[in-house]
Specification:
heterodimer, A: about 525 residues, alpha+beta, five-stranded mixed sheet, four-stranded antiparallel sheet, 11 helices, rod-shaped, disordered C terminus, B: about 220 residues, alpha/beta, five-stranded parallel sheet, 12 strands, about 40% helix, globular
Chain lengths: ~525, ~220
Amino acid sequence: MKIRAAIRWALGLFRQFLQVRAVFSTVVLSGVSLLIIGGFLSYSIGNGLYTTRVDQVLNESEKGVVEVQNSFSAATVSDEVSMQTLLNSVIPKLESTDSNNSRQVALLRTPGGTSTQVLQSPISADLDTGLITPDFRDRVRASQGKLIYQPISIVGDDGFNHPGVVVGAPIDIPLAGAYELYLVFDLNNEQQTLDFVQRTLVFAGIVLLLIIGAITYFVTNWLVRPVQEAALVSEQIAEGDLERRLPERGEDVIAKLAHSFNRMADSLQKQITKLASVSKMQQRFVSDVSHELRTPLTTIKLAGEVIFASRETLQPAARRSAELMHDQIDRFQVLLNDLLEISRYDAGAVAAELEVQDLNGVVGMAIVGLEPLARSKGSEIQISIPAGEVDAEIDGRRIERLVRNLLANAIEHGEGKPIQVAVGVNDTAVAVSVTDSGIGMTRAEVDRVFDRFWRADPARKRTTGGTGLGLAISLEDTHLHSGWLQVWAKPNEGASFRLTLPRRRGMVFTQSPLPLPPKGKTKTKKEVTAK
Amino acid sequence: MPHSILVVDDDNALREMVGIVLESEGFEVDYHDAGSGALEKFNEVKPDLVLLDVMLPGMDGIAVCEQIRAECGTPIIMLTAKTESEDVVRGLEAGADDYVVKPFEPAVLIARIKARLRPLAEPEGEIITIGPLTLDIVGHEVRRGSEKLSLTPLEFNLLLTLALKPKQVFTREMLLETVWGYHYKADTRLVNVHVQRLRSKVEEDPDNPKIVTTVRGIGYKAGQS
């Protein structure tokens, strides 16, 4: 697990930092190149050393063999004992006991010789005759006087394997017949030279790699630092510190980047400042309109009420006028309120006052408020709510207004048929649905139902005096709660609006506790989801 | 004797119209048309109640409210065109007892005024103690030891209501009904702001109240729970 964590950490580092990646790649690629070059160097040096040494070995051997042959050829010995004496004196001269450069000798009788004289073959004390393979001996015998050699591996004095060469030549000894002279050379000296060269190469390679790594680190650091700086400054600008800029030094590409970056930041700052001032102006405008319109409206309203209160004393025409004025002042006030509300949303000046409360109660208040209107239209409001409290963190005032809005729409378009209000709840969400069985809407109408001042049928008479902003405000209220407001509708079957809200602030939900379309309605549905 | 009301508003038509409505209800009405000089007018006519517009030339209604409040506890109702929390709370914090949002129904205005002028139904000749405080109900006085605390009538009523039933927890709606006289759903911020103002006057450490304590999720009560 620890190893896996370490690997994950390293991978994370690798992905996260450009510099780590650059240094890593450079070092790996340089390492591979060095390995190839070093291998080649080591091979050629080793090869050169070996060839030179072998040439030397062959020279020495040739000299030795000729010397021995001459000694025998020139010898005038005639008996076995003196021949043996000569042999014993000549052969060991060829030996050398230098530990790294030893030379061992063996004189072996060619098997199958016809001579009856059998001399005792002198063999160097340390020599392992197994090194002289029968194969090699066959080749020596077949060589017709030429020197034959074979690379071998011998065990040195130090107990390690050393590279070596065995050289063989046939020798003709008077009286004794055909013999073979073998010289075994230890090439440890050359091996040590080669080892030293290789060690030096490896050491130099590692040092070079470290230097390359360090250089890459510093160079990338030098290149990456301005980018890192730019990233840091972008982050600060993104967090709202619009004054931050990059230093512009020199005339290279980095300076160009800094310059362009700063220009972008300038233009962003200008745009944001402009937008902020526009937004502020908008809010000021809303606030001014609010005050400027409301004061005269208050006077008109008070005057209207006074006239309305004394309408009994007026002429019939004046009386009817007083009544009309009274109603229209109320309508004007509702319209003004809706306009101001939507302007506040547009200016982003609305904050929800969330509080845990009983959704059943909030819906109940809305129903109580609209029951008289429903009754006057002949629509019965049928309620289906869960038993007990449905606690939800909502802005009660807004949700009550929203449900009132949905109810008012249902009553207006419900054609006097029953209206169903349902409340649903699950672990993460609460929902309210308002369903009528009235004239319904076509698909195209459903698409526009949340548009401002949009009316399903402009020719239809307005009875309840809605402002045309109700559903637009409802949608904004839903957004404010991070909820959904969805609609299902079918011509002549009715319409159903379903509001789904997170049960607590920040809760994520994927499903509404209530079905849409509600039970008993056709399945073909068209949804407009406000997420 | 009819109650007298001072209407401070810079809009001539509205001022006159409010006057007509108030006079038709039998109030005696005085007028002023700017923020500057409002305090002088107030001291001159000594009204029983002030209707104060928020946006006034010279000096805004909130500053006027603070000036009047610095001198006495006469009920003040703000007339505001804004419903934004900030403005409403600012007015209440300046010492206003209540507010009415334009455009308002004449009936609402009259009801609010009457609620503020309503004589208190109070037990007679009693002295009530709550913590270190002594409430003289007849004299409308609150003392901490020998030190007299200056509360507005509204703040006094709020404290008295809580003190009369020290074991009961009052919801904000209950307080709105008993103290403000509202029998319908009204703005509970009224209660919050006035409890804060009351605490700043009667508590030794308003951040750690011991006399008017909050019962989380429900409302307020007198004394520690």
